[in-house]
Give the backbone structure.
Amino acid sequence: MSGDSIQTPTSLSADDLAIRIRGLAHRYPRADREALSGVDLSIRRGTCFGLLGPNGAGKSTLISLMTGVMDVQRGEIAVEGRPATDRRALRRAGALAPQDFAFYPALTGSENLRFFAGLQRIPAAEIGGRIAMTARAVQLEDWLDKPAETYSGGLKRRLNLAIALLGEPRILYLDEPTVGIDARSRQLILEVIAGLKARGTTIVYTSHYMEEVEQLCDDVAVIDRGRLVLTGRVEELLSEAAARRLTVTLAEPAPKSARKALAALDAEWGGEDRVTLTLGGPGELPAALSSLQAAGLQVARAEYGVSRLETLYLSLLSSGEEEA
Amino acid sequence: MSPLLACVIKELRLLTRDLHGLAMMFLLPLAFILIMSLALQDLFAARAGKLADVLLIDRDATPASAVLRTNLAKNEAFGINAPKSLPAAEAVAADLKAGRHAFAVEVAKGYGASLEGMPDPDAKPMLKITVAPDVDSRTEKLMLAALGEATGLQRTDQLIQFLPAEDPFGYPLDRPKVEPPKIDLAYAYRAEPDVAPSAVQQSVPAWLVFAVFFVAIPFSNTFIRERQLGVHRRLKTIDVGPLNQFAGKLIPYFAVNQLQVAAMLAAGVFLVPLLGGQALQMNGSPFALVLLSAALSLAALGLALLIAVVAKTTEQATLTAGLTALLLAAIGGIMVPKFVMPQGLQAVAAFSPMAWGLDGFLDLLLRGGGVGEIADELAKLAGFGAVTLGLAWLVHRHRE
């Protein structure tokens, strides 16, 4: 699948969209290529939107433009119907939990939360309650009075998220919120995000953990070298990809002659006894199984109709590399 | 809670957690004040009038030898000590060797009598000077000249006594009185008019000014650190403008500057005397002192903010802020008092905001001035602060 297969929801009304991006391009000073080029995206209200791509693909640039960290050079971004030039509206609608631990290590968790609550003009009388609520949400209550520099990686991630939740944002931008943390903290953060989504918060989520995106996100976009190479509903993309792949485990290792015979079917070999065939659709399944039989191969196990986001993502990136 | 208040509280909390930064802002200048006040005590004392102490041993003990002592004492370059009990030669040598006096001037018995007749070229010397081992030849020549002047005046007065008391017609004559020549002293260029500072009067304001400017290092580092942590990026997604962010840092550091001024002045008044130095004299208008302290802080923080927005790394910020502070201190009369600088360098000092601050403090503390006397320094410091703050704002806007 490549850029040709980009799907853009066109049936959505402006009210259904939290963020709408058209023809977005951005170039950093003295850079030899654009960090983003011709990006069109629609992010539905109350959904979790996964933004995927390798390092340096342009994900952080896109988030910086959506959150108002940087000015839009070319194209348009509308957040809840307001243009990105309306910084105040942009900043009041959303909150960012950056990939970095964007707080003060020398301050306690409570002091950090109090500071960021003050910046968001939360009335003094409400700050205590708001801090307690967000700390409870990320299970940080027992650590609030300790300096943040003494926290484990997982606790730091939770504090990072809690700060973003203080203002009760309608749109939450999460830049790799679970990177480098223990399983318990990771599960907790995923549960918090799922809870927010259930309450109607729009979530823009970047991660390198595909299973997380698969678990949480309704829609997904893949960016590579500044260009959008795929966007769509996760469920649909997986089901479409699943219909195009047949993975077979053979009873015995395949002889060279059999491998040669299957070359025409765009076979990917995962060892001598495992092969994945790319199909045009479910109708090609019987023919593919016949071809295996004709090549003298005995099937021990066949997987069809199952796909993982990671497989789809890797195949997209590898096809992009081949084109480049 | 307002964003500005949140920023101020956060910055104050961060300051209290940074013990190294606090030590640098308070203990470093305090150490300089103590060391320099005590180390330069003798240098400043010499400049204030006493070049050297002289032990006068009057073995003649006549009215004439007393006149010699009085004439010598009129010379402000030397402090004359004349003990009542005459020391032995060994005791004199030990005294000079120990550095208690630079010279021993011995008036021999018969000095008074030698002045009564006509001068005798073959007479044996009535005065003997013994020089301490560490006295330089210039001071030695000055001592000889001072003694020559004192004895010359006395000799001239004595010669006048030989003039007739009446004219040929029997009328009494007024004998002329011997007075030292009147000399009008004028300076072609003078950095420190009227009053010379003592070591503590120079060191306290000097290192106080240095301390105020030295906050540029921790101040600029807080900015860079916020960028490195990613807090800066997060702040840009929150509806809080740079004005709140800047003011939220400037206000706490302004307070730190005022504490520095108070602490350094208190050290000069109370601590330096405990360690054997002179106490700082707090002259001048307190209101002018407050204004000067505020203007000095404005200039220092303007420079600090400019460095903070220009520097990209903590290393850059530390190096730039540190070197700038050292350079301004070196040319501004902080490390080396302006009065010992060559005139060309003194002219360069006029461009250092540290020199403006130091001149202002000297005008107040040393010469007892008021707002009018330091108006020039106040204007320069406030102007420098306004320009650097404006430049910092422009650079920030350009960067963002």
Remarks:
- Confidence is low (pLDDT under 50) at residues 189-194 of chain B.
- Chain B touches chain A through 24 residues (CB under 8 Å).
- Residues 108 and 146 of chain B are 18 Å apart (CA to CA).
